[in-house]
Amino acid sequence: MAAPAPEYSFDPLIDLDGLWTVELAQRYLPIEGMPPARYEAVEGRLRTSPREGSANSWAAGELYALLRSPARAAGHAMYTALNVRTGLSGWIEPDLVLLREPVRQQTWIESAQVLCPIEIISPSSFHRDRIDKPAICAAMGIPYYMHVEIRPNDVLIELLRLDGGHWTLQAQARSGQVFQSEEPFAFSFDPAELLEPR
After folding, report:
1. Would you say 179 and 189 are in contact if contact means Cβ atoms under 8 Å apart?
2. Residue 172: what pLDDT?
3. What percent of the chain has pLDDT over 70?
4. Domain-wise residue ranges, the chain
5. I want to staple 191 with a disulfide (CB 3.0 to 4.6 A). Which of 55, 76, 155, 180 is the partner?
6. What is the DSSP string of 144-168?
7. Burial of 114 by CB count in 10 Å (0-12 exposed, 13-18 middle, 19+ buried)?
8. Fold of 52-194
9. From CA 124, how far away is CA 38, in angstroms rounded?
10. pLDDT value at 47 more than 90
11. Mean pLDDT of all residues in 26-47
């Protein structure tokens, strides 16, 4: 007598590898039983990463508070993490996103709506946030990209501007200096304001 066939169990992490789309994400994410995570996809391949530590969370909150009013005064809208579509089989979820204008009840943001993704970089996301995502955003024609590196007693912030398909440095500062620019809206602050209080 033949042995019974093994029971098949669908696992989206395995069975949908290389096939992820926004539609599949809406159907299967978040994945039941997994700890809270950031879900992103590049060319149909799902990438997950754990939520970052308190230093990144604090910096994201402080940066949102610093930029929200000046962004709004310029007619733009600052959001916490949003799903930004990067094509039929991909999306990114920046820590903060500056949109050209406010939206209402929108789950998936189109790249044409985005003025500047903002990433708070950590060791687990360094390559993706400093290399992969800026390249993706440049290919989509998003005009600005900002990344923030939090170190134990220092913060480095860089604002990049897209010029001819390549990123150029618009503004840069670290703790104790003034980080300022007139584009994409006027702002000025000391990056040290993003450090957790002692």
Report:
1. yes
2. 97
3. 94
4. 12-46, 52-194
5. 155
6. EEEEEEEETTEEEEEEEEEETTEEE
7. buried
8. tt1808, chain A (3.90.1570)
9. 12
10. no
11. 79
